[in-house]
Amino acid sequence: xxxxxxxxxxxxxxxxxxxxxxxxxxxxxxxxxxxxxxxxxxxxxxxxxxxxxxxxxxxxxxxxxxxxxxxxxxxxxxxxxxxxxxxxxxxxxxxxxxxx
Length: 100
Fold this sequence. Notes:
Layout lengths: L1 E6 L2 E6 L8 H5 L2 E6 L2 E6 L1 H10 L3 H20 L9 H12 L1
């Protein structure tokens, strides 16, 4: 369950309640640092996000699962990620540079 904010940069979905009794520390291990409009922020990696959505009681979370799962499949295929996705941005950037 999350809280949605409207910001000048776009929508922001913040976890208000973590399913399965997980703590901030449990989830921190499953975050990646990304750059967003000149700022470095931490977000859940896609595998943990999918795991949380699967256990969620929120119907909106369940409806988002197919898109997240397809995104993961595409990342695995296109970027070559496996069980450790902490370097998606670096791998994705390298691949984009190769295509330029």
